[in-house]
Design goal:
The chain is an alpha/beta fold. The chain folds into 2 domains: 244 residues, Type I PLP-dependent aspartate aminotransferase-like (Major domain) (Aspartate Aminotransferase, domain 2, 3-Layer(aba) Sandwich), CATH 3.40.640.10; 125 residues, Aspartate Aminotransferase, domain 1. It is 40% helix and 14% strand. The strands form 5 sheets. The chain has a 4-stranded mixed sheet. It has a 3-stranded parallel sheet with strand order 4-2-5, sandwiched between helices. Strands 8-7-11 form a 3-stranded antiparallel sheet, with no helix packed on it. A hairpin with an 8-residue loop joins strand 7 and strand 8. Helix 2 runs parallel beside helix 9 and helix 5 packs parallel to helix 7. The longest helix is centred in the last third of the chain and has 32 residues. The structure holds pyridoxal-5'-phosphate. The site of pyridoxal-5'-phosphate (PLP) has 14 residues, from helix 3 and helix 4.
């Protein structure tokens, strides 16, 4: 089977986990702190707070910004459901925004319209607490444009950087920005990362919150650990909190994984470039890379031709039977049963997400994937598409 993904776990990773488990210090020790320092340095933020997964990271980021029941959070329509679920779990309401057809990221023009509409009415204006763009499949959203809109309205931005550790975007030369590549997680008030096995760096389950803001970091630290004051010399509890902690053996794995992250990302970029070449001249559209953007290709997601949308499930099943694992891109959140029935969304409300959701396909991509396997993936996919009736 040509697998969709295989984590890059090697002997040094196993050794680090083994040693940590054998040490008997399994939680809240020096390995979590060391992993946090490494990630903060890599992302370029003052703080990184490790948590049990990115869903927890997003939940705590919203709570750190004091998102309350009745509040509104403006969020991309096309993402893993966790991005919107956490808003609901704060008792707040997501206001979805459509995506761009090329990068599948939040469309700044649609964001601008949505913000103008919400801020024009005092009742909604006072309830908008955050903007939550996603760096879809490991490519940064248009952060300069998003931060400009957010700044105009005085609303903080949380980056859902679940898939994007190591991805960068050039800062544009305009007041407030400085030139050079800036990493995911270093743009907004807070950045949230995932270390799920489908990400370039994995700790099994795991996540981290990055921020430059001392007060926000302090709130996230307290909230992840039962509300314990992270700074007081004697234990004291300053708010109701969760147990959203990362274990020591996960952090040990994270630290060894960090030593090979750049190598893994380089391999993913090389493989993505090869897929780009192989897809030339086929009816399949490779993922677009925005100018100045260096994605990490957490997933390599193509757009199938329109006539393949209706038979995509059969296509995925046929490829699987032929030994190739593929899957859809990600989710059109307003069209999932919960959000559709709660807010009455219809097809056509997010026309770009409608198209991308129906036509996207994720191809196998991992460090050990060979060029021969890539050729086989594209050849079999082309064959399968060629056998579709043209009008279907
Ligand atoms: C965009 C996005 N946000 C959030 C999450 C949630 O991450 P986790 O599985 O670590 O909770 C994911 C998971 O894949 C994701 O892709």
């Amino acid at each position: 089977m040509i697998r969709l993904t295989i984590p890059s776990i090697e002997e040094d990773d196993l050794q680090a986990v083994r040693e940590t488990v054998a040490s008997g210090y399994l939680v809240q020790g020096s390995r979590v702190a060391a992993f946090e320092r490494t990630v903060a340095l890599y992302v370029g933020t003052k703080h990184a707070v490790a948590v049990s997964n990115c869903t927890a990271a997003l939940h705590l980021a919203l709570l750190a910004l004091d998102v309350q029941p009745g509040d509104l959070v403006v969020v991309t329509a096309y993402s893993w459901v966790a991005t919107a679920n956490v808003i609901e779990l704060c008792g707040a309401q997501p206001v979805f925004v459509d995506i761009r057809p090329d990068t599948f990221n939040l469309d700044p023009d649609r964001l601008d319209e949505t913000m103008a509409r919400l801020m024009a009415v005092p009742d909604t204006a006072r309830r908008v607490k955050a903007i939550l763009p996603v760096h879809t499949f490991g490519q940064l959203a248009d952060m300069p444009a998003i931060l400009k809109i957010a700044g105009r309205h005085g609303v903080p931005v949380i980056e859902d950087a679940a898939c994007a550790l190591g991805a960068t975007l050039d800062r544009v030369q305009q007041p407030g920005f400085w030139p050079g590549a800036r990493p995911a997680g270093a743009w907004g008030a807070l950045g949230c990362f995932s270390f799920h096995p489908r990400k370039a760096l994995t700790t099994g389950e795991g996540g981290i919150v990055t921020t430059d803001d001392d007060a926000l970091a302090r709130r996230v630290r307290a909230l992840r650990n039962h509300g314990l004051d992270p700074d007081a010399p004697a234990a004291d509890f300053i708010m109701p909190g969760f147990n959203y902690r990362l274990t020591e053996f996960q952090a040990a794995l994270g630290s060894t994984q960090m030593t090979k992250l750049d190598r893994i990302i380089a391999a993913r970029r090389r493989l993505a470039a090869r897929y780009d070449e192989l897809l030339q001249g086929t009816p399949m559209q490779p993922p677009a890379v925005a100018s100045g953007s260096a994605p990490v290709y957490q997933s390599y997601v193509i757009l199938l031709p329109e006539n393949a949308a209706a038979v995509r499930a059969e296509l995925i099943a046929r490829l699987r039977a032929e030994g190739i694992e593929t899957t859809i891109g990600t989710w059109h959140i307003p069209r999932t049963t919960y959000f559709r029935t709660r807010y009455g969304y219809r097809l056509g409300d997010f026309p770009v997400a409608d198209q991308v959701f129906a036509r996207s396909l994720t191809l196998p991509l991992h460090e050990k994937l060979s060029e021969t396997e890539q050729e086989e993936v594209v050849a079999r996919l082309s064959q399968a598409l060629g056998s579709l009736p043209s009008g279907s």
